[in-house]
Amino acid sequence: MKIAIIGTGYVGLVTGTCFAEMGVEIVCVDIDRAKIEGLKRGVIPIYEPGLEELVKKNVAAGRLSFETDLARVIDRVEIVFSAVGTPPGEDGSADLRYVLEVARTVGRTMNRYVLMVTKSTVPVGTSHKVEAAIREELEKRRLSIGFDVASNPEFLKEGDAIDDFMRPDRIVVGVNSDKARGLMEKLYRPFTLNGHPLLFMDVASAEMTKYTANSMLATRISFMNEIANLCERVGADVNQVRRGVGADPRIGSKFLYAGIGYGGSCFPKDVKALYNTGREHGCRMRVIEAVEEVNRLQKEVLFEKFRDHFRGEVSGKTVTLWGLSFKPETDDMREAPSLVLIERLLEAGCRVRAYDPVAMEEAKRRLGDRIACCPDKYEALTGADALMLVTEWKEFRLPSWETVKRLMNRPLVFDGRNIYQPEALEGEGIVCYGIGYGKTKGRIAKSQAK
Hints:
Rossmann fold
């Protein structure tokens, strides 16, 4: 089977590579010539564990190739996947310009039946716009060629995308014809042999499923962060609350961890897009609106704790951030809490030093010389007045606390991911503030603040 993947970003490259691993002949197409030339040389434009090795393996096997012009390959493929970006517009709605340009390109270049599959996350109703764009281009060429449009949303977690694709919880496919269904069944047969469920539905329902799933997970995060904030005021421990709530099989334990908010390429964008979809159809999404607002405020919690500790006297303080990416095992800083935190610290007159295992180049690209990017976690601590744990990378779990105390001006930690035990650290003379601990935990008397 031969298919084309349009877009070699996170979704497109992972999708194409994993299909190739299953024996499908894949050509990944992108108009960015530099990126395509880099991929041909084995240069991977994103950080994703295991992806580089898998790309090189399948290129060597002849199952994976790269191209800049869809017209050169479209007559050799049965399916074209659109995996281009859908960034949020100024009003939060999904920007479909790239999706529709792919559709127009297909219409301008196809000469026989093609199944056009949207892999990008798009609002409900996008399939109609894609179909119209293809049909318009065919009419310009005075051609009558059959085609179908389908939806196959991705459910990949950055940092674990290869495993998510190869061993999916479910595969959602929206189709409106038997022919399209047959092609998608053929493509995904290797996955169903291992028992992974293939769920067929209409296209609109498939489009809606992706937004609903991400918004539900974002809702759990924001809900638990609100509970954490209340825990601090009433003397409860959010970790104990999480254990008690998560033990209920109707609720489960996933996405109940309190912290400093969600980020990345999916949750923020999809929550905004779902809210705007509701607004466009006269249906106010009140819960989704609240989820977004809670998350916006939660990204400022560490700064507020830091400011309160120093009674507002923070100008001139040096603050070290451990972690910059929005989550571990990725260099993605899109909508990362670290960006909000850095802006607040700089606005307050603080000096910022930072270290992240893989996101340093991305940080330099985004922030330039506004912060000091350090080569390791301990060098970043030199002369610091406070340490803020922002991303829960494994290498931050068991640091040498003696080294931390020796390098810092004062042993003060703000744990944004609750990976440390405040009582244990305070026993070693380190002040530690967490998220959602009661009034007596992770605190010292304000009279001790320096």
